[in-house]
Amino acid sequence: MRSMIRLALIALSVLVLPVTAFADAGFERWIAAQWPAAQAMGISRATFERETAGLEPDYGLPDLALPGKPKAPDRQAEFVQTPAAYVSDKAIGTYAARGRKLAAQYRAELAALERQFGVPGPVLLAIWARETSYGGAKLTHDALRVLATQAYVGRRKDEFRAEFLAALKILDEGHVSRAGMKSSWAGAMGLTQFLPTGYLAYGVDLDGDGTANIWTNVPEALAATASLLKEKGWQSGKSWAYEITVPAGFDCTLAEPETTLSIGEWLKRGVKIAGGRRVPASALRDEASIIMPAGPYGPAFLTPANYFVLKSYNFADLYVLYVGHLADRIEDDRPFAHDWESIALVKTRDLEFMQKVLASKGFYTDKIDGKAGMKTRAALGAYQKANGLPLDCWPDAAVLAHMKKGG
Asked: What pLDDT digit, counting tens, does each position of 106-156 carry?
């Protein structure tokens, strides 16, 4: 009987082990192949072997390109929520109240950062709030494992290979321990969420201890964020945006980044600054575009250069809207002058269909991604005008139905 059991176990191992061994062997070969690049970056062999020993891919991560597995739906809230849901007045109000307390607590440090980088403290606090809930969000993933997995079987392998190597560089230089290098599921680290290449490029050592501690040192985490924004072109003393009221009959296809005029010229054309705020005379010559995140069904904004600098932190317009508005509320606790109306988003696959139709008819030249960004909405408006439909530049069921009929 023992002999039969032993033979059965051997047979079972023959059936099971090759699959596991094959998967592990492929990953191990990929890891080994990274050594020349790591060596070229000055990473020691001891660090490379120590940190990659026993490293295994995490196939449970989102956004992987696994054979036979369909692409998962987008998990980023910026792309799957309505503006009203994402820029929740209740959440903004709560974060603004906490932000004012933190602004008082770190008054001296924030003032020093603004002198050094030109970025106001409320903007830095708002990014901290949005990224990790002022440090309250717990990052539980092993950053090196996440980055290695994404570099091995992710959808942006080359990008994450660079991040994996940069993470090894951070560990080799002793900026953080492996246990302390926790990240989101996408590999972003620290209080204000930096990928490793961003950390190496923008980290700031304020206290002279030889490292930029974005993980537990609030001023240094905020300094890294300020450093990035300055490098991307932040204009000191300028606003990120102005809420506006557009004139009656405004052509919503003009609400896209490539259509720019000076703020003064927009005002001459009937645009009005909302909520009793004023544009400084020094800003009237600044170039700006208009965005209407919910079409005519919510607030609209004049967006000068700093708006697009914030997009370098996160490309989603709703992210920028959230951070900018929260920064305003930390400084002056006033809600938007205009309310968000109740609207619905069409499904991602339907938006992809709409983008393909728009592209086929020459209205749209950007990527097909199922996201209703400014360029998609402007293209929808052009389609509506060409087909005699009501003009609102919004991807609703009526436009979708018209397209499906071959319009």
From this structure: 999 999 999 999 999 999 999 999 999 999 999 999 999 999 999 999 999
Strands 182-183 and 242-245: unpaired
Long-range contacts (CB closer than 8 Å, 24 or more residues apart) made by 31-35: 31/55, 31/148, 34/161, 34/164, 34/165
Tokens of 17: 């082990």
Mean of per-residue pLDDT scores for the chain? 91
What is residue 80's predicted lDDT score, i.e. its pLDDT? 61
* Average pLDDT of span 365-376: 90
The letter for the amino acid at 9 is L
Phi, psi angles (nearest 5°) of residue 66: -85, 135
How many C-beta atoms lie closer than 10 Å to residue 57's C-beta?
A: 22
Spatial separation of the C-alpha atoms in residues 71 and 82, rounded to whole Å: 22
- pLDDT higher than threshold 90 for residue 239: yes
Tokens of 219: 């001023």
Model pTM? 0.89
Q: Which amino acid is located at 207 in the chain?
A: D
Q: Which residue has the tokens 């052009």?
A: 382
Cα distances from 92 to residues 88, 126, 129, in angstroms, run 6, 10, 10
Residue 22 has pLDDT above 80, yes or no: no
Q: How far is CA 298 from CA 52, 82, 292, 367, in A?
A: 50, 11, 7, 26
**Alpha-carbon span 318 to 326, nearest angstrom:** 12
Q: Which two tokens stand for residue 7?
A: 């033979």
Cα dihedral 362, 367, 371, 372 in deg (nearest 10): -30
User: Around Cβ 58, how many Cβ atoms within 10 Å?
Assistant: 16
CA 111, CA 56: separation in Å to the nearest integer? Answer: 44
N- to C-terminal Cα separation, the chain: 75
